[in-house]
Amino acid sequence: MTKFKTISLSLAVIAALGFSGCGSSSSDDSVTPTTTSSESSKEVTVERGATYDANVTDANGQVAEQKNGENVYVFATVPKYPIIVNGGWIDVNGDGELDTNDTLLNTTMKSYSDVVTPITTYIADSNKTIRENKLKVLSTLSGASETELLKVASKADTKAILTINAVYQEMIDQNTTSIETNKIQTTLSALQNIDLTGLTDSKLIARKIEKKTMENLLTKGKISALSMSDLDEIQKFKVFGITWKNRKKDDYSQRSYKGNTVKVINDEIVMTAKKRDGSWSSRAELRANLKTPITSYTAKIVLDSMSNDYGKAQINAYFQMVNPQGGGWKQLQTSISIRHNKIWYGIFKEDNNNPYIAIDSKSETKPSNTFKNVTLSCNVKLVGDNIIFKVKDLTNNIDYTEQTFDLSNESLWNEMNNNQRKFGQILVRSVFDSRNLDSNKTDYSNTIMKLIDLDME
Fold first, then answer.
1. What pTM was estimated for this model as a whole?
2. Which domains does the chain have, with CATH numbers?
């Protein structure tokens, strides 16, 4: 199965954590984190090659948020210098996609300005005079002006780009910023032999010199390229807008609403739907409109809740189309719902006028707690006109009955063209279903569902 991969954060991502209908593509309550600017905010560009998903902080510990799809980080208030950068990855080939051509940023960079580069790291010192003197030495050594040396490589002239890379190579090679100028000169002379014939754009020049620098360090074993397993870990939940940097925190909570939470703990998304009394359900969910529609997905989950009938995990996916008559939309929904002792499969259709109309459903009931605290693989795939559901208990190596739904006679399915016959949206949620609470029961608990992995193709 192919891992769904995208580094772009321009996906339409919705995180709904409120109380609303069973399967609608919209929700009553949603929380979508955004970065806003004000007169007191400050943007900082990080470049050793464009550097993404880094931890960028100021001297007071203020954390900057990355702008979507850019190596620009925004502080909510004017930062206290120096700016400190670590973690993240370097886009070596400049394609904006995280792949095996790229590498991790394996050093700490610093700056007393609004750009963070190997040069600002090399000269970094709380004493301004020391910074200025080190910059003058570099300028004399390289022939690049001080102004150019303080630019990011993609906007600097060739002499400055070569110097930036020479400084970086020596810092990584020697594992220190206290490097001798003769070492920088030797590396600079070697890099000057790179054939730049025909290149006039600073971005292209910077990319070629950077590639050679990285090759030198790879050959010496000072850095390593990203492996496919690295990429799988980094990209696992990118579809939901949760970044690699945030997944690496021990307890990252990006979204919360009325006690319902979505957290990342030890590289797993943990969704907690708060227990409640009432006529409807509480839920914690992640929903994403897919940039590239898919025909199959597999979610690996763990349902961790008390042995009652009110907690469940749901994985939904949607075939969507604009209403041909205009003024609305239509969609088909596929759904897997898992409680502690039951798997339920369903197909629904809905539009803006008729929400959630059941087409067909099937279920499988097992002894109490069969599906609690085991890893379940939930696969849904489209084969011709058939939707095929497959659930497997990976912990105990148990395959449950494969369920097939034939859509060939469904009118809405037949209205859709081939492009619309792909999943355009996916939703994963934890639910506390309080619509029919039994007052005689006392084993109510929050519903906790862990999303361990998500594959799409």
1. 0.61
2. 35-226 (no CATH), 258-456 (2.60.120.200)
